Amino acid sequence: MKNALPSMAAQEADTLPDESEFNLAEYLAMVRRHWKVVAAACITSTAVAGIHYSITPKAYMATATIQIERRTLAPTLSSQSPWLESYFDAEYYPTQYKLLESRGLAERVVKRLDLVSDPTFNPGHAPGRDAKGGPSADDDQAVVGGLGDRLRSGLAVEPVRNTQLVEISYRASSQAFAARAANGFADAFIDMGIEYRFASAGKTSFFLGTQIDGQKKVIEDKQARLQAFSRRTDIVTLEPGSNAGSNVIVQRLTQLNTSYIGMQGLRIDKEAAYHQLMTSPPEAIADTLQPGLVGSLRGELMKDEQNYEGNLKTYRSESPPMVELRNEIERKKRNLANVVNEMVEKARKSAYGAWQAALRQEQTLEAEIKRVKSQALDQGSETAEYNNLLGEIKSSRELYDKLLREQEENGVQARLQDTRDSNVHIVDRATVPGGPFYPSLRKDLSYGMLFGLLLGVATVLLIEFLDRTIKTSDEVERRLGLPTLAVIQDIADAGKGYGYGSRYGYGYGYGYGYGYGSRAAPAPVAVLTGKQEKEQTSRLQRKKGAAALPPHIEMVPHEMPRTQISEAYRSLRTAMLLSSARELKVVAVTSAVASEGKTATATNLAVVLAQLGRPVLIVDADLRKPRLHQLFRVSNQIGLVSHLTSAPEPEAIIQATTVPNLWVTPSGPIPPNPSELLSSDRMHDWLQSVRARFAYVIIDTPPALAVTDATLVGVIADGVVLTLCSGKVTREDARLCRDRLRQADVRILGAVLNRYRSARHGLGRRYRSYETYVAAQEAAAPEAGSAA
């Protein structure tokens, strides 16, 4: 049961989703790993931007600044002039900006600058002659309109925020033409405003003169009618109100109108009250009229209904008490409905009667008003006509005087034309630009570099997305649900290729050609002499500038104990021993695929365990491609296979090594059936015997996905350490290896991330601090010796 708990916990961890939080350090590490891609993208994009700058035609921009004020051009003029700007008009300035961009203004600039005959702006123009042999018209509307549209293409109008200033910019391929066009637009806009306003003033003057003449004639006609009416009716002087009878009738009519308006409002209220009673619910009307009576009846009904519902829990509905109570409820309902209907009917009849009474009074007042109006018309028609004529003459004279004043003011405005006063002023005239506006070398290079950086980062993210390998310890824990026992840095970071040692001429990247029937022995290896090994190491030291380089990865903890790789293996030893509360004596080391460094992990783990001062045995259970006899330079004539297939005693296959407290059991001859031998009872008995003799037994096994040997050994071992090569093993292979071991109930102690490159993953700072500490210790050791 205890063995199942870690496996279940690991399976639960494997089902957890990936972390979705944004980790900036992780993305920066991705960029550092592929910095060459980002640099290449930046350089390429910057070069393309430089080429774009060199082949793009140069464009120049000139800017003129004008001020547009909200003010009256002539202070003596009336505010009623139609062309004056209103200060509170929100559409004024947007209208001015659109006028600056209009085609009409552009055509004015074309005519003002004589661009029709300008060969630079209009190269297709050629002076021609008409049918009579005379010169053709240069200001042809179609030609001017087309050139105006073309001229507008380089114009830009930009108002200065929170000011009355407007910047008129023009972009052209010629420096002088850019300044000429910008100033032309500013001058043409001022002239257009002046011409428009004075043209409007002329039209206004003509209109006012026509109206004055007509109004004068109207006044003369009305005065003649008034004189004729006075002679006909013998009315010489009659002021309104002098006729007493007429005044009494007017007062009577006023009183009737007041009463009629009041009665009309009362009738509307009564009619609205009646319609409200007709549309409102009867019970709501009854509650409004007599809330106490209806409320009490409804309360009694609700009380009987509650009693009925409560008695249903005790009596049946067919029982006499329940029937009687139900009849009583129905009677009270009918009584309540009758009372409500009676009250509502009474209220509706009363409201209808009040509405009809008000309507009759309103009709009576209306008839009386009509009668009084007829009487007033009969008695005061002559007076009213006389008064009307007097009023019309007075109004005509007022309008005539007003028109005369406006005509005089308009004349003052017309006389201001020579001053060319305008509400638009040129603040800064456009000057000839000293350099091109477009393209900009600084902008092109900046945008090119930025685009290259974004493209490079996007490419890096795409590469990382397509890369399915496991590269960091976080991925091991997050994607596999396995604890990371140690992270072994790549020895190439120390200035040497990551291999099993050049002294043996056997590279790290060998391939597994596993076959169950293969009996081929490994190829012979060339062993370097001590002098050759020293020369090779010296060359590497001179090349990298390193103080001392390990000859091969497997023996680093023994040969160079004060290095970060040696410390990493000691961390592996500590983590492995603390990974379980049970005793760990037999530990198997395997990997998912070939060339992940499982043999190096097993060898160095055995070395650091032996450094504890306790006996350690390392067993070469890779019966297909054994290598421990090459690493420890022992004979492979007899070994584990010899004991499992013949009679050698267990002590005969155990050989001492140059590492104190470390013994090795080589594989022996390569058998045809490695899996059967490793799963035999003899193998189990032999492990029991060495378990009693040695403190720790480390077993090197083949890759778990290639063959089943590692699974068979892991079943009889106390635990398995899974070696994963950073940047080589894929997530799928690692998961498949983990699942195969778990299916066989193999206890996985954790994973070792091998061949980890700090520069590649951007996490080397944590190791450099340890190197500084070690370097300080090594520097202190010689001083202590000299002092002694």
Give a written overview of the molecule.
This protein has 788 residues and is α/β, with parallel strands linked by helices. It has 25 helices and twelve strands. The chain has helices spanning 4-14, 24-33, 35-55, 92-100, 103-113, 141-152, 175-233, 244-279, 282-289, 291-311, 320-415, 441-466, 473-480, 530-544, 556-559, 564-577, 598-610, 628-632, 640-645, 674-678, 681-693, 709-716, 731-743, 758-761, 765-787; strands at residues 60-68, 155-159, 165-172, 424-428, 484-489, 586-591, 616-620, 655-656, 662-665, 696-700, 719-725, 748-756. The strands form two sheets. The chain has an eight-stranded mixed β-sheet with strand order 5-12-11-6-10-7-9-8, sandwiched between helices. Strands 2-3-1-4 form a four-stranded antiparallel β-sheet, covered by helices on one side.
Question: How is the topology of this model organized?
Answer:
Elements: H1 4-14, H2 24-33, H3 35-55, E1 60-68, H4 92-100, H5 103-113, H6 141-152, E2 155-159, E3 165-172, H7 175-233, H8 244-279, H9 282-289, H10 291-311, H11 320-415, E4 424-428, H12 441-466, H13 473-480, E5 484-489, H14 530-544, H15 556-559, H16 564-577, E6 586-591, H17 598-610, E7 616-620, H18 628-632, H19 640-645, E8 655-656, E9 662-665, H20 674-678, H21 681-693, E10 696-700, H22 709-716, E11 719-725, H23 731-743, E12 748-756, H24 758-761, H25 765-787
Parallel strand pairs: 5-12, 6-10, 6-11, 7-9, 7-10, 11-12
Antiparallel strand pairs: 1-3, 1-4, 2-3, 8-9
Helix pairs in contact: 3-12, 5-6, 5-7, 7-11, 8-11, 9-10, 9-11, 10-11, 16-17
